[in-house]
Amino acid sequence: MILVTGATGAVGGEVARLLAAEGPVRILARRPERVTVHGPGVEVVAGEYADREALDRALRGIDAVFLVTNSPTEPDDSRVATAARAAGVRHLVKLSMMSVEEPGADDLITRLQRGNEQAVRESGVAWTFVRPRTFMSNTLSWAAGIASDGVVRALYGDSPVACVDPRDVAAVAVAALTGTGHEGRAYAVSGPEPVTAREQTAHLSEVLGRPLRFEQLTLDRAREALLAKYPRPVAEAFLESAERQRAGAKAAVVPTVEELTGRPARRFRTWASDHAESFTAADLGV
Question: Which of 85, 154, 210, 231 is deepest in the core (most CB within 10 A)?
């Protein structure tokens, strides 16, 4: 039995779906009503990481855990890893990020993930880290602008990133959860090619069959947009990350998807085509 956390997100949901297609899976969810993976072998346990009783219920009889955390303030990795050890869990596969292995990355979010990885290492549970590059699905933040006026607004339109399809990240995680020999390994996961925001805009234009225009934000406008969504330390971390991308630090391609799944990583054009409806006016209620 495998426990999946983060199942209402892009990667965790796909991990749960892939596992449910092969056998029983348990899901820990803060909001069970948002879980979209269902079936006779799917069990959903309501609870939060800070609720040790809920964690213990979710971990009872579990062999392996897929761990997704995103709080910048709560010690959720430590909480889960400690409870997992007490429950006799044999393997913990944690979703991390590729920048933790890059010396030049020192933004808040990267530092937090390094600490989270260390907490898992020190728990005594065998671990595997899945470290993806930027998700292709991050471009869904452009959907409102595309639907309303056909404009993609982003910072640094010509900086390349080897972004990755969340489905490929999930496939790597499932390979680590269900295979052998992955303990103590850290897997960097990228897409098959670096693409820029301008190139992504062109792909979306072709997929949607409508002209789209790219508008590069100034640093001040980008900061303002981020501060409308995130606390200042998190917004500044995103801006630091963007500077690293501008310098070419996120363009490298790694073959992990093909090595662990036996098939090539999906290109951005493929992801965009498969999610075209998410960029339509009807889907956004515009």
Answer: 154
Q: How many CB atoms lie within 10 A of CB 37?
A: 21
* Residue appearing with tokens 């889960």: 80
The span from the CA of 226 to the CA of 223, in Å, is 5
d(CA 159, CA 176): 31
Question: What are the residue ranges of helices labelled H in 193-231?
Answer: 197-208, 219-227
Q: For each of the chain's 286 residues, which pLDDT tens digit applies?
A: 999 999 999 999 999 999 999 999 999 999 999 999 998 899 999 999 999 999 999 999 999 999 999 998 999 999 999 999 999 999 999 999 999 999 899 999 999 999 999 999 999 999 999 999 999 999 999 999 999 999 999 999 999 999 999 999 999 999 999 999 999 999 999 999 999 999 999 999 999 999 999 999 999 999 999 999 999 999 999 999 999 999 999 999 999 999 999 999 999 999 999 999 999 854 554 4
H or E segment to which residue 46 belongs: strand 42-46
Q: How many C-beta neighbours within 10 Å does residue 70 have?
A: 12
**Interacting residues of 100 by C-beta distance below 8 A, sequence separation 6+:** 110, 113, 114, 117, 129, 131
CA distance linking residue 2 with residue 93, whole number of Å:
10
If one counts every other C-beta atom within 10 angstroms of the C-beta of residue 117, the result is: 20
As a whole number of angstroms, the distance between CA 255 and CA 260 comes to 9
Closest CA to 155 of 227, 243, 90, 91: 243
Closest to 185 measured CA to CA, from 135, 266, 136, 256 = 256
